[in-house]
Design a protein that fits this description.
The complex is a heterodimer of chains A (407) and B (414). With 407 residues, chain A is mainly α. Chain A has 18 helices and 2 strands. Chain A has 2 domains: 7-161, no CATH class; 193-396, MetI-like (MetI-like fold), CATH 1.10.3720.10. In chain B, 55% of the residues lie in helices and 13% in strands. The longest helix of chain B is centred in the first third of the chain and has 36 residues, at 12-47.
Chain lengths: 407, 414
């Protein structure tokens, strides 16, 4: 560790690793955006990054921060364009894309490396200076890494749904959108809504989810209140068994439910789905709500009782209005579970006229149906829940933290 | 002297409160036990029975009638009673039919009795696959439309058959055959190994990534809210959507990742990520980490933000370095939530079905216990074996929950 804490070791080391990361990121991003051949050159990145890191350390005492970043950026752009830089482009890449890629890499590297190595100077470093530089490096890496892994699958999902099968097979990397096609871009969506009846699935999913929310609340509010507030024998055992039931895997229950539904003719009916979904969500809702009810001040309720309200009136007039935010969180969470539910819908529904959205997408997964239809279906299922999530993020995060014992 | 201690018996008020509590809980308890407890019992019951998918249709005799030699002197109604099951005999088979008015039935066969218009025949036992044919001579009354009478005979009054068959679902014969099959040889151990690999690495990976992401966002800056929302996407999106997005992304022929790797020179030929042996298992584990790190991230971030900052100021005064602060201050504070998360995620990853089922269908060495339930019950059509696997899962779950309640139920208020 002692050897690492030298300015001329730390600087080049972090610089080299950082240029590898940035070159890879920019190359991947440019490939995904243009479909052209960009790739990082690991070896050259290490060399140039180390040199750049060394220069930043050597110039640490000079006051011109911006000038340093600019020089670094210029050097990176220059080497990349000459063909022996951190990023290599294929022969058929246009000049515009090449310059753009080089510029993005150069500027981002120049600015960020100067920031990462701020405070790293020639000679021995204190433990603080060294660790802070490493942490800045790791932070930068973390932001790039997480954003990339989260965004790439969704990006591919949306872009694939807008392409044609041939274009995709020709160059799987080319996600550029041909705007001249106009409304034809959304052909997959048109076909899904027109031929495959996704409008109906969307409506079924919505209906089932909303009904599930209401039925769940109707059952779990009184139950949660009883567990949280009222004293009775077996209360502790009860709140434990809620958690236990909540952990029973659905696949274990799905088998007998399938048998029972087959025997009673509930299979293949929306009624059966609406009956079974709330049962999977009631334990979650009960668990979340009882936690919230416990946190409410009991004094308010006691005041209501003293003034002559019955228990049920207390729940209706005092507890429920106070717990509206929790009810919103629970509703959203339950809605999300019901909307995303796949296993039961897959096992219990066979009739295409009764599919929920997730079941409809599963039916698109066949070799005869082009891939972009499948991705368009995925987008259709994802967009409503994302809109809901982004619009009501505050409630949603709260609901997730309170209830996401369930996965 | 009267005793002035607190009351030792439950008073009227306490009793009323308990009654109200049970009243409020009753609907929930009944519906949950109907759909959770009952199926669990059913699973135990079925796991000891050799049941296949085909046995779900109850065995019953089938009877058909048609008019033979219509118009001739020996015209008769032919009844054919059949046991369509290949291995279960039906006992006490009988059927009834109504002779429409305008038709006079001749002497019934010896198994049948005719009282007025009601015909009743007792067949006795029908062996598997056997068929019995009975002829009932009939005469049409003169002056009536023979065609209409024929239709009335054949279509208007359907004969109803009944019989007692041994239903495998409800009888009292049990066998350990399912468990023997489940625990049989190498396959079970492979399934167990896959399950454990997936569960342990999936859980730990999701925790570590969640911890890393939480540390990144544990400071306020512009765009922190956006990033936090963004990092939750994998968890919030429907599993079917993201699973198919991954399949598309990693497709060996038209997948972008393979194209990218080829272009970067990392590999010379396309890699079948979800189709070859050790790689498929690693990929589904990576998917599990990717999908569930947001959850640990959210929990850990919430806990981090509630840590008292005084402690860090004191550490700063003492000259602790950033890593020291993390190791000696943050980590011990987070240990509680980390252990709770570990156990919960462990149980939930163990229970996971959808993800693997959608990604690989349990092929290429990714068959976990939960996928095995589905495979046995529906792909091999052996419901009994599927139920036996489910019982094994349930037993593991009970074991885990003992740990859970022992060590972490009181921590973090869970």
């Amino acid at each position: 560790m002692q050897a690492l804490r030298q300015g001329y070791v730390t600087g080049p080391l972090l610089g080299a690793l950082w240029l590898v990361i940035l070159a890879t990121t920019v190359a991947v991003a440019m490939s995904f955006a243009t479909g052209d051949a960009f790739r990082p050159s690991i070896l050259l990145s290490l060399v140039w990054g180390a040199i750049a890191g060394g220069c930043v350390v050597a110039l640490a005492r000079s006051p011109m921060g911006w000038a340093k970043a600019l020089i670094l950026a210029g050097a990176v752009v220059f080497t990349v364009l000459l063909g022996f830089g951190a990023m290599v482009t294929g022969a058929n890449v246009g000049a515009g894309a090449r310059i753009l890629g080089a510029a993005i890499l150069g500027v981002s590297f120049g600015v960020s490396l100067a920031a990462i190595l701020a405070g790293v100077r020639a000679g021995g470093l204190t433990r603080h200076e060294f660790e802070e530089a490493v942490i800045r490096f790791l932070t930068g890496f973390g932001y790039i890494f997480f954003t990339a892994i989260v965004l790439i699958p969704f990006y591919v999902m949306v872009m694939t749904s807008l392409k044609s099968q041939q274009a995709l097979l020709q160059n799987p990397l080319d996600f550029s959108i041909d705007l001249s096609k106009g409304a034809d871009l959304f052909r997959s969506y048109n076909e899904l809504f027109g031929i495959y009846g996704f409008g109906g699935y969307l409506w079924t999913s919505f209906l089932v989810s909303v009904l599930t929310v209401f039925i769940t609340l109707a059952f779990s509010i009184p139950g949660a209140y009883a567990v949280a507030r009222l004293k009775f024998r077996g209360q502790a055992a009860f709140s434990r068994s809620i958690l236990l039931i909540y952990m029973v895997p659905m696949i274990v229950l799905a088998l007998p439910i399938y048998i029972a539904f087959s025997l009673t003719g509930l299979r293949n009916s929306i009624l059966g789905i609406v009956m079974i979904y709330p049962v999977t969500t009631i334990p979650v809702a009960l668990y979340m709500l009882q936690g919230y009810f416990r946190g409410l001040p009991a004094e308010v309720e006691e005041a209501g009782l003293m003034d002559g309200l019955s228990r049920l009136a207390v729940i209706w007039k005092i507890t429920l209005p106070l717990s509206l935010p929790a009810l919103a969180s629970v509703s959203l969470y339950v809605f999300m579970i019901a909307w995303n539910e796949f296993l039961l819908a897959f096992m219990l529904l066979d009739d295409p006229s009764k599919f929920t959205l997730t079941r409809g997408i599963a039916s698109l997964n066949s070799s005869e149906i082009p891939r972009q239809h499948l991705m368009a279906g995925a987008v259709i299922a994802t967009v409503p829940i994302m809109v809901l999530f982004l619009g009501l993020e505050r409630f949603m995060t709260k609901g997730l933290t309170a209830g996401s014992v369930k996965g | 002297m009267s005793d002035l201690g607190p009351p030792t018996t439950r008073g009227a008020l306490a009793k009323r409160e308990a009654r109200l509590a049970w009243g409020l809980l009753l609907p929930t308890v009944s519906i949950v036990s109907l759909v959770v407890i009952l199926p669990l019992l059913a699973i135990f019951w079925i796991s000891f029975k050799p049941v296949g998918l085909a046995d779900l249709r109850p065995v019953a005799p089938v009877v058909r009638e048609d008019l033979r030699n219509a118009g001739d002197a020996d015209q008769a109604v032919r009844y054919r009673i059949q046991n369509r099951s290949q291995d279960v005999p039906i006992e006490n088979v009988s059927f009834t039919d109504t002779i429409p008015s305008g038709v006079t039935a001749g002497p019934p066969p010896e198994q049948c009795t005719l009282s007025g218009a009601a015909l009743r025949c007792e067949i006795g036992t029908l062996d598997p696959g056997k068929r019995v044919t009975l002829m009932l001579p009939v005469q049409f009354d003169a002056g009536l439309d023979a065609k209409a009478l024929e239709d009335a005979l054949e279509d208007d009054t359907e004969p109803a058959a009944r019989g007692d068959a041994d239903n495998i679902l409800t009888n009292f014969s049990f066998s350990l055959e399912n468990f023997a099959r489940v625990f049989d040889g190498k396959q079970f151990w492979e399934v167990l190994y896959v399950t454990m690999f997936y569960t342990i690495f999936g859980t730990i990976g999701a925790l570590l990534f969640g911890l890393f992401a939480a540390m990144l966002l544990n400071k306020s800056f512009k765009g922190q809210g956006i990033l936090r929302g963004l990092y939750l996407f994998p968890y919030v999106a429907p599993v079917i959507a993201v699973a198919f997005a991954w399949i598309t992304l990693f497709d060996p022929f038209s997948g972008s990742v393979n194209a990218l790797l080829l272009q970067m020179g990392v590999t010379q030929e396309a890699i079948n990520f979800f189709g070859q042996r050790p790689l498929a298992l690693i990929m589904v584990t990576v998917f599990e980490i990717w999908r569930y790190f947001p959850l640990s991230f959210l929990f850990i971030l919430a806990r981090m933000q509630s840590i008292d900052t005084d402690m860090y100021e004191a550490a700063d005064m003492d000259g602790a370095s950033p890593f020291q602060k993390f190791w000696y201050l943050s980590l011990p504070q987070l240990l509680g939530i980390l252990s709770v998360l570990f156990l919960l995620r462990f149980i939930w990853t163990f229970n996971k079905f959808d993800d693997i089922f959608l990604l690989t269908g349990g092929n290429a060495g990714t068959r976990t216990l939960t996928v095995n339930v589905y495979e046995q019950a529906f792909a091999v059509s052996n419901i009994g074996a599927g139920a036996a696997v489910a019982v094994v899962i349930f037993a593991c779950l009970l074991l885990f929950s003992v740990f859970f309640f022992k060590y972490v139920s009181r921590e973090e208020g869970l």
